Amino acid sequence: HLDLLQPGVVNLMNAGHLHPAGKGINVARVLKDLGAHVRVGGFLGAENQAPFHALCQEQALEDAFLVVPGATRINVKLVEQDGRVTDLNFPGVEVDETGLQHFEQQLLTLCAGVDYVVLAGSLPRGVTPERLRQWLQLLAEQGKKVLFDSSGAAMAEGLTAKPFLIKPNEHELADWAGRPLESIEALMAAAEALQACYQIPHVVVSRGADGVLWLAGDTWWQVKP
Question: How far is it, in rounded angstroms, from Cα 8 to Cα 116?
């Protein structure tokens, strides 16, 4: 937090804090609060792993992270007094072939005894969209209901694996549709087209402060904050 961000000079912060987060972590915490047994896994950088392990212990999340060299990505939000937010996203870990193979060996064990698997967030360097698709297909073959939330090339590849649920935001859905989606009707039509194209049972369109549009089979739900 700072009064005003001034490029090119030293900026003094009024306050700041660092905490473990990310889409997967946030989903896990909410599911735990709702009473689910939650196992968390994925790639965790060795250089800053301690806060994530501590959070899992504190929140009673089953910790199944695979620790790899490097630091888990740090995302910095600079919040000015007028509410403007500037994001600085670091590159994060780069997973080598050994790490990928270890994760693949662990994947079925990680998902043993669970019904739903959430894959959320951007891909670490070294994980290609094609490899992600292979993992999604493997999970589907094992009868897991996969809830998938990513963007760009990762989202495009993931769709071909026909997950149980996909959660694009309105901008990501517009990118997929190849045109602006400036009304609820346009968003709904694009979501229906995406569902039909990939036979995905659930399409959830997040709209920030405007809430969520949820296509469940052939039924629409609209959830507002």
Answer: 47
